[in-house]
Amino acid sequence: MVLQRVFRAVIMGPPGSGKGTMSARISKTFGLKHISSGDILRANIKDQTELGLLMKSSIDRGQLVPDDVMSRLMLSDLRALDHSSWLIDGFPRTVSQAEALDDAFTVDTVINLNVPFQTIKQRLSSRWTHLSSGRVYNVDFNPPKVPGLDDVTGETLVQREDDTPETVTRRLKAYQNQTEPVLEFYRSKGVLEIFSGTETNKIWPHVEAFLRRKVSPVEQTAA
Ligand SMILES: Nc1nc2c(ncn2[C@@H]2O[C@H](COP(=O)(O)OP(=O)(O)O)[C@@H](O)[C@H]2O)c(=O)[nH]1
Ligand SMILES: Nc1ncnc2c1ncn2[C@@H]1O[C@H](COP(=O)(O)OP(=O)(O)O)[C@@H](O)[C@H]1O
């Protein structure tokens, strides 16, 4: 058996740029554990945890959750994955979060999905989500086999409360003001890799080829 070094990556991009869709492909192909900050927060809201109840109104309004809360939540989950390779989606979203992550772990690669805002607005109005797994569908792009139901569990799909047009506009503003500076943080560390386009299927081969140079696909390892 060939032992592989632990590989740690972050996927960035505006809301709706395809991070979740791309992460599912990356994690299937390369065996990286996919950790989504949004899925973790939505699980807390669904389970009505203290954190979920406190954070729900900011999330529904399209505002970011406070940095200290978010960094503590994510770092404790990541520490529990000590020797696994992972891909984080949705964190860090501010420079302060990026610094907190940097203090705890060395990030090998940051994949940035550079997708125009106009493309995103159209997509999010037709996003359907399976809340407990984080699987996403789209009426036009990847519809579920049975309308309204998750392909794997058959459970009901929902539209996220923060996918309304006004809230999407607010989330895109938060992205520009608070998250874009994180790109500069990673550029200066020499780990930022930008993939531009309007279609996930066209961006994916480039992401896959890039990652193949860094990490072995899952068939070749015991991931
Ligand atoms: N039309 C279209 N929809 C896409 C494409 N890629 C992803 N989507 C859909 O766009 C929405 C947002 O994608 P998602 O992966 O959830 O983005 P995230 O918010 O960055 O994690 C979902 O409904 C996806 O199914 C694409 O290339 N074309
Ligand atoms: N790292 C984070 N820092 C602060 N808030 C976050 C973070 N990750 C997620 N959130 C909150 O959860 C919401 C949904 O996040 P997410 O599911 O990642 O959205 P999207 O996939 O559309 O970009 C965000 O709008 C924000 O309110």
TrEMBL record:
The reaction(s) this protein catalyses: GTP + AMP = GDP + ADP; a ribonucleoside 5'-triphosphate + AMP = a ribonucleoside 5'-diphosphate + ADP
Boundaries of every Adenylate kinase active site lid domain copy: 127-162
LID: annotated segments: 126-163
An individual GO BP term: AMP metabolic process
GO CC, any one term: mitochondrial matrix
GO molecular function, one term: nucleoside triphosphate adenylate kinase activity
Keyword Cell wall biogenesis/degradation listed: no
Chain spans, region NMPbind: 36-65
Binding site for AMP: 37, 42, 63-65, 90-93, 97, 160, 171
CDD domains xref list: ADK (cd01428)
Compartment annotation: Mitochondrion matrix
This protein's UniProt keywords: GTP-binding, Kinase, Mitochondrion, Nucleotide-binding, Transferase
Residues annotated for GTP binding in this entry: 16-21, 127, 136-137, 200
Enzyme Commission number: 2.7.4.10
Keyword Signal: no
NCBIfam families membership: adk
Family of this protein: Belongs to the adenylate kinase family. AK3 subfamily.
Domain notes: Consists of three domains, a large central CORE domain and two small peripheral domains, NMPbind and LID, which undergo movements during catalysis. The LID domain closes over the site of phosphoryl transfer upon GTP binding. Assembling and dissambling the active center during each catalytic cycle provides an effective means to prevent GTP hydrolysis.
UniProt subunit comment: Monomer.
Function: Involved in maintaining the homeostasis of cellular nucleotides by catalyzing the interconversion of nucleoside phosphates. Has GTP:AMP phosphotransferase and ITP:AMP phosphotransferase activities.
Name this protein carries in UniProt: GTP:AMP phosphotransferase AK3, mitochondrial
Organism in which the protein naturally occurs: Gasterosteus aculeatus aculeatus (three-spined stickleback)
Gene name for this UniProt entry: AK3
